[in-house]
């Protein structure tokens, strides 16, 4: 069965399924003497192929801070239960209609809100990396009352040109096919050859491949398409006008996202760029000490 029919079949089978909350892990605040932990919880969203536990080394460096990690749909212990649209143009959807349909973002944001409500969190510091950063931007722009401050790590605010969105759709669809059809170790070896990961050493790359081999490949393919950058609205203007502060964290070796951070921060007083010169795309993993120091300062500033 081709990827398109697999996706359609499983979406149909889940259409009337009960809503399933995303898996989450909440460490409540335990303020210690002489610490600057914030009473407002920190909510952390991981990237594609990751899981909430990716943030544990960072959380351990934040004594007393309330922290909530969430496994995004199709990742870790969270099932992929998004009822989204067909994934290829056809009689029901033209390519233009397909790219305008952001239902994967809408539903994921609703699921995140449900997790916050489950834990009694009325407002949070929201931190997201890569895919998690894109979802964090979407959530913050649509649920601004829930967000004290938005912290984005290496995440795209959205494409502006329709031609770029079409190209990105083809790119993501090809990767989804690979995840669905090829051995995951082989796909990951190709995945980490992409330019955005060019700063990784061979040992670092092999470590990431080993860590990500336990992913459910079909779920990854489905989530990749449901939340493709090609289907994400351009949120840059909404971020520039946001009532909450926005902090964009980027690696100096990640030229693409450093340029995006420049563009956003230069056009708005509410958006601040934080650059980590020695880092590439994944700052929190490969420059943890400086990352942790920056994060603690931001949490202390917006209590």
TrEMBL record:
<keyword id="KW-0474">Menaquinone biosynthesis</keyword>
<dbReference type="InterPro" id="IPR029058">
    <property type="entry name" value="AB_hydrolase_fold"/>
</dbReference>
<dbReference type="GO" id="GO:0070205">
    <property type="term" value="F:2-succinyl-6-hydroxy-2,4-cyclohexadiene-1-carboxylate synthase activity"/>
</dbReference>
<comment type="pathway">
    <text>Quinol/quinone metabolism; 1,4-dihydroxy-2-naphthoate biosynthesis; 1,4-dihydroxy-2-naphthoate from chorismate: step 3/7.</text>
</comment>
<dbReference type="InterPro" id="IPR022485">
    <property type="entry name" value="SHCHC_synthase_MenH"/>
</dbReference>
<keyword id="KW-0456">Lyase</keyword>
<dbReference type="GO" id="GO:0009234">
    <property type="term" value="P:menaquinone biosynthetic process"/>
</dbReference>
<dbReference type="Pfam" id="PF00561">
    <property type="entry name" value="Abhydrolase_1"/>
</dbReference>
<comment type="subunit">
    <text>Monomer.</text>
</comment>
<dbReference type="InterPro" id="IPR000073">
    <property type="entry name" value="AB_hydrolase_1"/>
</dbReference>
<comment type="similarity">
    <text>Belongs to the AB hydrolase superfamily. MenH family.</text>
</comment>
<comment type="function">
    <text>Catalyzes a proton abstraction reaction that results in 2,5-elimination of pyruvate from 2-succinyl-5-enolpyruvyl-6-hydroxy-3-cyclohexene-1-carboxylate (SEPHCHC) and the formation of 2-succinyl-6-hydroxy-2,4-cyclohexadiene-1-carboxylate (SHCHC).</text>
</comment>
<protein>
    <recommendedName>
        <fullName>Putative 2-succinyl-6-hydroxy-2,4-cyclohexadiene-1-carboxylate synthase</fullName>
        <ecNumber>4.2.99.20</ecNumber>
    </recommendedName>
</protein>
<feature type="domain" description="AB hydrolase-1">
    <location>
        <begin position="41"/>
        <end position="286"/>
    </location>
</feature>
<comment type="pathway">
    <text>Quinol/quinone metabolism; menaquinone biosynthesis.</text>
</comment>
